[in-house]
From TrEMBL:
This is Phytanoyl-CoA dioxygenase. It comes from the Bacteria. Its cofactor is Fe(2+). InterPro entries: Phytyl_CoA_dOase-like (IPR008775). SUPFAM superfamilies: Clavaminate synthase-like (SSF51197). One of its GO terms (molecular function) is 2-oxoglutarate-dependent dioxygenase activity. PANTHER family: ECTOINE DIOXYGENASE (PTHR20883:SF48), PHYTANOYL-COA DIOXYGENASE DOMAIN CONTAINING 1 (PTHR20883). It comes from Persicitalea jodogahamensis.
Length: 338
């Protein structure tokens, strides 16, 4: 590291320690996160991009109070089938595809994230596998993550151009400790973040289902020692963060719920909703799921793997998806059926 870079890093460290951020910037909050948000007036004047398949007024009120919504029976079964066929093709022929994958097993330490072809095929079919950004390869993945029902709700809460940030595909439950997304999945505006959890099968109680604390998006933010975002300068750990959430959510009266939803439903949650992966009590029970994070073009004008280049854009159902800066001809290599 050069002298100038070292000085900049020290200056940033001092700034974070002296003036740590303790909350989202009120000036850039999505409209619905303001306490005075008038949902009735908004719905009256809002023109959705697609015909609504849910009660927008009801869902927005539920979101404002609880920090999440469930859109029931909105995703066609054939779209889910087509996406899982792409996943199976990837796992069956990993040598053909350029995709970063993570397997959180001790035998792969210290490099648990690597190109998919560098993992044994049998391990790709097991637990603790996370397929990162498979939507770049799969057109069906792009169509699924930008389904009109999801787009209508995201455009309503953001009132800006929606941009895809990343996607994660799982076969089994993650068993991830309690966390909020915004400290790690970061854009220029941390509050411009939402996620969709799309079950690719009916979810059972023994599969390590997702859990969340209802209303926890209103919990005071955790301080990592240098503000509300976690980075290399933070002095507090993810486990301390999880402990803070698990103790303070119940103390504030935020009920813990387990997500048992069905194929065709979608959970959309707020960037500050505390959630995690439950314990897998049946080792043979899968929890096939597709998790997608979204921001706005104002907050994310770049692909996160190349912060300084103007990204190439694709558009699906009105949502911008930046092409992966390193995938080249692998972008959309798995074509969607017309």
């Amino acid at each position: 590291m050069g002298l100038l870079s070292e000085l900049k890093k020290k200056a940033l460290t001092v700034k974070e320690q002296m003036l740590p951020s303790t909350e989202f910037d009120a000036a850039t909050l999505p409209w619905i996160d303001h306490s005075e948000a008038d949902i009735a007036a908004f719905v009256k004047n809002f023109t959705p991009r697609f015909p609504l398949t849910f009660d927008l007024d009801e869902k927005l009120r539920f979101w404002q109070k609880n920090g999440y919504v469930i859109l029931e029976k909105v995703i066609p079964q054939e779209l889910i089938n087509a996406y899982w066929e792409d996943v199976e093709e990837l796992i069956e022929h990993p040598e053909k595809y350029k995709l970063m994958t993570r397997i959180d097993l001790p035998k792969f330490e210290p490099v648990q994230e690597r190109l998919i072809k560098d993992f044994p095929k049998e391990d790709l079919k097991g637990k603790y596998v996370k397929l990162n950004d498979f939507h770049h390869l799969s057109e069906t993945g792009k169509n699924l993550m930008t389904h009109p029902a999801i787009v209508n709700f995201l455009e309503a809460i953001f009132q800006q151009q929606v941009v895809v940030m990343q996607s994660l595909t799982f076969m089994f439950g993650s068993q991830q400790p309690t966390h909020q997304d915004f400290p790690w999945v970061t854009a220029k505006i941390p509050s411009h973040l939402a996620a969709a959890w799309i079950p690719l099968e009916d979810i059972t109680a023994d599969s390590g289902p997702l859990y969340y604390y209802v209303g926890s998006h209103k919990l005071p933010k955790f301080n990592f020692g240098n503000g509300i975002l976690s980075n290399e300068r933070s002095t507090r750990t993810p486990l301390e963060f999880a402990d803070y959430l698990d103790k303070n959510c119940p103390a504030h009266g935020f009920e813990k719920k387990t997500l048992l939803i069905n194929r065709g439903d979608v959970l959309i949650w707020h960037s500050a909703l505390a959630h995690g992966g439950g314990l897998i009590t049946n080792p043979d029970s899968t929890r096939k799921s597709y998790v997608c994070h979204y921001s706005t073009k104002k907050a994310l004008p770049f692909h996160r793997y190349n912060l300084h280049a103007v990204p190439k854009e694709q558009e699906y159902h009105g949502v911008v998806i930046y092409e992966h800066p390193e995938f080249g001809e692998q972008e959309n290599i798995l074509k969607a059926e017309k």
